[in-house]
Design a protein that fits this description.
The mean pLDDT is 81. The termini are far apart. This protein has 63 residues and is mostly helical. 76% of the residues lie in helices and 0% in strands.
Length: 63
């Protein structure tokens, strides 16, 4: 039996947390939670090797 959490359940938990942030912190708290969620996603994807954040931030050589 697999112990991995299905992406659907992760999405549900994230949506509930964002709703809680919106209720508790208003629109500013909701936006702050979205930004932190995006940063967390990028860090997790970098750790798993799905994306190369540092390569994307360094840009391409010019000239």
């Amino acid at each position: 039996m697999s112990t991995a959490v299905p992406p659907t359940w992760i999405g549900v938990v994230v949506a509930l947390l964002l709703a809680l942030a919106g209720v508790a912190g208003g629109f500013g708290g909701f936006c702050f939670a979205l930004v932190l969620g995006a940063v967390g996603y990028l860090v997790g994807a970098q750790a798993e090797g799905k994306i190369d954040v540092l390569g994307a931030l360094s840009g391409r050589g010019r000239g």
